[in-house]
Amino acid sequence: MIFFKERVLLDSIEIDTTPEKIWGFFNNIDKNYKSWHPDDHIVCRWIKGKPHEVGSILYAEEILAGKLRKIKMRCTNIEINRKIEYQTLFPLSIFHPKSIYLIEKKRHKTVFSAINYFRIPKLFKRVIAPLIDATEKHISEEGKNLKRLLENKIS
C-alpha cells in the first residue's frame, strides 16, 4: 500500500546575468530575503555554520497559504555558482523533504531553477494540497522577482 504520493514542483526562469551574481544573491540571502519576495518573506538567518556550507542550517519565516511558516533547512550539497541543495528539517520534512536551486549558464544568460519535493500522505491530501498550490505560485513569483532584482542590478 502506498501511503504517500510524490510531487515535484519545478520553476525555471532565464535571467540576463551571470551565475556568479545569482550565487552572490543567495550567499547573502539573510540580507536579500525580504527584497526577494517583499509580500511574503519575513526573516532569514543562518543559525548554524557559515552561508552555504554543507551542514549549515538556515532558518526562514514566510507567509504561505495565508499562514506564517517557520522553516529550518540544512545545506546538503553545494556546488559554487551551480547548485544549492537543502534538506528541510523536522517536522516539515515529513511533507517537504528537500529543495534544490540550480544555476545553469546558457549563452549570455543564466537559467535559475527552483525544485521542491513533496510527499503527500493520502489521509492529509485535502489539507496539504492548498499549501502545495501556494508553494507553486510562490516559487514562480520568487523566480520573477529574482529576475527583476538582478537585471535591475539591485541586490
Number of strands: 7
Alpha carbon gap, first and last residue: 48 Å
Query: Structural class of the helices, strands and pairings?
Result: alpha+beta
* Proportion of helical residues: 25-40%
Strand order of the largest sheet: 1-7-6-5-4-3-2
* CATH architectural name: 2-Layer Sandwich
Note down, in words, how this protein is organized.
There is one protein chain. The chain is an alpha+beta fold and 155 residues long. It has one domain (4-151): Alpha-D-Glucose-1,6-Bisphosphate, Chain A, domain 4 (2-Layer Sandwich), CATH 3.30.530.20. Helices cover 28% and strands 45% of the residues. It has three helices and seven strands, in the order βααββββββα. The protein has helices spanning 19-27, 29-36, 125-151; strands at 4-15, 41-48, 57-64, 67-79, 83-88, 98-106, 109-121. A seven-stranded antiparallel sheet has the order 1-7-6-5-4-3-2. A hairpin with an 8-residue loop joins β2 and β3. The longest helix is centred in the C-terminal third of the chain and has 27 residues, at 125-151. The protein is globular, with a radius of gyration of 15 Å.
